[in-house]
Hints:
- It is a single chain.
- By secondary structure, this protein is α+β, with helices and mostly antiparallel strands.
- The chain has a single domain (20-164), classed as CATH 3.30.1330.40.
- It is 26% helix and 26% strand.
- It contains four helices and six strands; from the N terminus they run H-E-E-E-H-H-E-H-E-E.
- It has a four-stranded mixed sheet. Strands 1-2 form a two-stranded antiparallel sheet.
- A hairpin with an 8-residue loop joins strand 1 and strand 2 (37-41).
- The protein is globular and about 50 Å long.
- 27% of the residues are buried.
Amino acid sequence: MKHLSCSIILAAASVVPSAFAADVIRHKLPDSDFPIAQAVEVPSGHSLVFVSGAGPDVADASAPKESPAAYGDTKTQTASTLKKIEATLKSMGLGMKDVVKMQVFLVGDPSKGGNLDFAGMMESYRRYFGTAEQPNLPARSAMKVAGLANPGWLVEIEVTAARKSGGP
């Protein structure tokens, strides 16, 4: 009987390994409060979800269709894009807390002499990451690019999320 009980427990454990999957490990930047992770480790027992790059929704329909004015400044575009990413993740049973990697592509703002508005991007980013409600930080790269698919976009963001195996 004792051997039968042990066999049943071992068999059950092998069928549901996701219940024992380790959590994602997020390494903080040393001596910094900047809201990104230095590195993120995704242990076995997780699947990775690669979300295609997303850009902002139109903020001002009266502005010329493919102009930055139609989509707003960098802060506005970042907020719109992150809201869109959040909805995409939610539709897959995930959330911003599951994002382990982010790439942010930024175009210099013509109204700022072609300079990046990194502060504007960060202001919107901080609403989603490193908050009391959602403290998980992704590893992140931000880069200036010459242009994006839509000439009015100043921001495009792609993310990778991790899901424990056996999740939705």
